[in-house]
Amino acid sequence: MYIKKRYIKNLQFSLIAILIIANFILIKNIINSNNIINPNDINVSFIDVGQGDSILIQVNNKVMLIDSGPKSEKERLVKYLDTLNLQTIDYVIATHPHEDHIGNMAYIINKYKVEKFYAPKASSNTSAFENMVESLSRKNLKINILKAGVSSINLGNNTKVEVLAPNLTNYENLNNYSSIIKVTYGKISFLFTGDAESDLEEEVINNSYNLKSDILKVGHHGSSTSTSKEFLNKIDPSIAIISVGEDNTYGHPTKETLSTLSDIKVYRTDINGTIVISSNGESIDTSFK
Question: Are 51 and 6 in the same domain?
Fold first, then answer.
């Protein structure tokens, strides 16, 4: 009788344990289902990394990361990337060597299988830059120089990647080494501008590139030294994304920039968190994480 009762009690505990594990798996699957990528869509995540930039592009089973945000916001970046269960990043781009853009590059290079790494021909004596270079060396990855006209970034079918800047190899301001990249999927285009200042914007305009894009990543976190009216008119976006830290000491985005963007739908990482824009090549969907 005692053995029978003990058996029943153990069975009850086993069933409870099974139910707990099943619920855990179910909850995990529900969470992960929110990050399932439609194979017919492009998904662009403007990751909330505070006062910095980090953008993840997923399309055609390929992944491209533009910048990694500042080291101080590593936890936010890691938390978001971990939800996506990434193993390989096909292309990693450092738009320019400022810490708020490359602060976590060493971590990215060390954790993931990076197929190709791109950066402009610019350097910095910061620990962030040195750690990035050391990590690349340990992984036997070379720095592919990113400049206007580079055409080796291939994100698959129905997708076009155009590098519009930098054009020169010598700029006084490190921000003007920023990569300006246009990604087109079907009929929908994104323009990523790093920290490009008005000088670089003018340079790109003078080169007569087709800047028309549906979504603009606003340059330099909404600084008044970027996003000139002439540049914005050439792009004519329907959506503008500002990657910026809450209550930052720089006053970004400035009232001047917000006024320039007044006729455009603006999303901000300090207000909206991580902003995800998805498109099937015809229409645009926006969500927040």
Answer: no
> Taking a C-beta distance cutoff of 8 angstroms, is the pair 53, 100 a contact?
yes
Same-domain status, 28 and 84 = no
pTM reported for the whole predicted model: 0.88
**CATH at residue 244:** 3.60.15.10
Q: Given the DSSP bridges, would you call strands 215-217 and 88-93 parallel, antiparallel or unpaired?
A: unpaired
> Do 89 and 13 fall into the same domain?
no
The span from the CA of 179 to the CA of 177, in Å, is 6
As averages over each run of 10 residues, the pLDDT of the chain (289 residues) reads 54 57 49 60 99 99 99 98 98 98 99 98 96 98 97 98 94 96 99 98 97 99 98 99 98 98 98 99 98
Token pair of 147 as six digits? 């400049």
Residues 125 and 9 in one domain: no
| One domain, residues 71 and 186 | yes
Whether 82 and 216 share a structural domain: yes
Are residues 76 and 119 both part of a single domain? yes
| Total domain count, the chain | 2
Domain holding 273, by residue range, is 39-288
Strands 215-217 and 239-242: parallel
Q: What is the pLDDT of residue 76?
A: 98
pLDDT at residue 39 in the model:
76
pLDDT for the residue numbered 99: 98
**pLDDT of res. 38:** 80
**What does the pLDDT read at residue 168?**
85
Contact 196, 219 (CB under 8 A): yes
Residue 16 shares a structural domain with residue 63: no
The residues, ordered by sequence, that sit 6+ positions from 198 with a Cβ below 8 Å of its Cβ are: 225, 226, 228, 231
Burial call 214-235: b when 16+ CB within 10 Å, e when fewer: bbbbbbbbbbbbbbbeebbebb
Nearest Cα residue to 52 out of 87, 101, 92, 18 = 101
DSSP 50: S
